[in-house]
Each structure stands twice: as structure tokens, then as C-alpha cells.
Amino acid sequence: MKKILFILIPIYIVIGSMGISVRASADEEIFLLKHGGKNNYMEFVVKAGQQGTIDFELCNISGEKKTNYVLVYDSMTAINGGNIIMTPDNLCCNETASWFEVNSMEVVLESGQTKAFSTFYNIPKDIPDGVYTAILALYAYSTDTSLEGEDVNLKIDSNYTSTIAIIFRVGKDSSAEFRLGEGIELISEGSTGNSYMLVPIENYGSDYGFPTLEYSIFDDNGIELQSGSMKLDIFYRLTSSKAAVLIEKGILTTGSYKADVKILTSNNSELQDSASYLFEMDDKTMKEVIRNRIENQIDNENDSAWKSDFIVLGKQEVILGSAGILGAALISVLLIVLLKGRNRS
To answer: What is the DSSP secondary structure assignment for residue 44, as one 8-state letter?
Structure first.
């Protein structure tokens, strides 16, 4: 989504005062999914070696024929918790998702059509007690998002996804267990310039959980510069990720620092692990933070599923490939020139 945002932000700034209307059809791109579970998850109590099916319905609520992809993939924890979104091209199906007979299928529905689906699963015979999760996702490609006006008509190729969790409960002996990893990382986020301290967290338990992170940052004189608490989103079993702590502007200059960190359980705030991290901020480290920011931005561009983004300007359908912030700036300049040129004529 970042590539799309890099394009949209400067364009919205330029066209916001020019009376160009914005039309987005994201809600109609993804089929409506009906199932017998809760709103955002389906839960099953099963036994090792059990077989069964997951049943659901898909409904095309849009006004035209649409295509979605039904995906089942492993639940992988994102930074600050939650699920990493995957695409038909990069599914990860090594854990719970490997229990399913089909992990990806294309579904085409006419306008207003509803269709029932079943997907078969086979629980391994030798798994220990625990709570096992996979992600059921709907994924759609679209070129329907547009910006329209008397002089300019922009179409943006974009993608949409919606996910729910599939939860298998095997036995009763399960709990989330959290511990802190080695070392912290400092990064500077590309689009905002904000600095973050990334704290490694691992859930080595047999259940998912919602950990709480408490932290304090001290200078080399022991003076507390910043402290806080963060309730993180879901961390899946046997996964490692990071908590991104926003560093207040001007807190870190050159010098020595210490970060005291605690990780607590989600239910009763019981302390599970604590650690102290020492780090130096010198000219070399500051340059490293900037370098990491650039590399992370490039990696995000390369790994992004939205590689086919384009913008169409006017009736001539001039196609410009998106290229992050620089591309967005060039597009904005071109849009201004185009509008001024047409106004003069």
C-alpha cells in the first residue's frame, strides 16, 4: 500500500483545492464473506488426526462481474503485532496452512451472485496441544480507484485484501509465553522521518497472546528521557517480531543510552521477561540509521505486491510507473503543469 500512498498524498494536496472529485470502490472490490464464526475469526475445537471442512459463502455486492482470490496462509506476526498480509504470489504455507488441501483459488462472481465454498483440512496426528492459527484472506486486483475532474481523470491500479483468522484448538494445555530478544535496532521511517526503537519479541508458547511492553530510555547520567507502555496486537504462537517504540524528536543525539524493557502477559499483566539494552549514538550510528531507512524503503518497494501501479492522465492515457516519493513528486509537478497548460488554453 505504501506505493499507492506515496502517489496519492502529493496528488491530493495538489488537486484538493481544484474541485476534482475522488471515487474509491474498495468496499465493492472484496467479496462479502459469510461464515459461522465471529466477525473476524472462525474457531474449531479439534483433535490430533481429525479431518474436516471449513464452509463459507462469498457474495459479490458490486454492480459488475468481479474476481477475487481466496487464500489460506500461515499466520505471521507483523511489527507491533497483527498479521502480515500476503498475496497470491508469496503465500507461506509451511505450518497450519499446510493442513489445507487448497491454499489458493480464483473465484469469479457475477454482480449479486452468492456461492458456497468448502475447503478441506487434515490435522496432523502427532501435534502437541495448542492453539494453531491460519489466515483466510480475500485478495483482489483493481483499476477502479479514480480521481475525476473536468480537466483530469486519473486511474490508479490498486489491490485490496480482507482477512479473518482460522483457529484450531487442540487439547487444553496452551498459553502464550513471551521473551525479549537480543539487541535493539534504531530506524528512521522514510515517509515521516520519525525514529523508532525496534524491540525484538518472541512468543515461544503454544497459544497466541496480546503482550504489553513497558520501556524507559535513560541517558549516560541515568536521567530518564522517555518512558511508556504499549499494548500490542496479536502475537501468534512460535513467532518472532518486533515492537516499534516511537522516539520523541530531539531525545537522541550523540552519546550513550540505556533502554530498560519489560514484557508482560495480556491477561493479568504478569511480568514475563525484562532486559536492559545499551547503545551508542555517534555520527557513525546516526548515519547508519539514515542508511537503514533508505535500505528499508528500497526493500519495501522491491517486496511490495503492488508492482503494477500506474496513473492515467486525461484522455491520452499517458502511463507513468510509480517510483516512491520521487515518482510522486514528479507526477505532482507534471499534474500542475498539465492543469496550468489546459487553463491557459
So the answer is: E
For residues 3 and 239, what is the distance between their CA atoms, to the nearest angstrom?
27
What are the residues whose beta carbons fall under 8 Å from the beta carbon of 308, sequence distance 6 or more? Answer: 157
Three-state secondary structure call for residue 279: strand
pLDDT digits (tens, 9 = 90+) for 244-270: 999 998 888 888 999 999 999 866 678
Q: State the Cα–Cα distance between residues 39 and 35, nearest whole angstrom.
A: 9
Q: What are phi and psi of 174, to 5 degrees?
A: -150, 145
The pTM of the whole model exceeds 0.90? no
Give the pLDDT confidence score for residue 137 in this predicted structure. Answer: 95
| Mean pLDDT over each residue of the chain, to the nearest integer | 77
Q: Kindly report, residue by residue over 69-100, the tens digit of the pLDDT.
A: 999 999 999 999 999 999 999 999 999 999 99
Which has the closest alpha carbon to 307: 23, 88, 30?
88
Burial-class residue 299 by CB neighbours within 10 Å (0-12, 13-18, 19+).
exposed
Q: Which three cell numbers stand for residue 247?
A: 522516539
DSSP 87-146: -TTS---SSGGGGBS-SEEEEEE-TT-EEEEEEEEE--TTPPSEEEEEEEEEEEEEEEEE
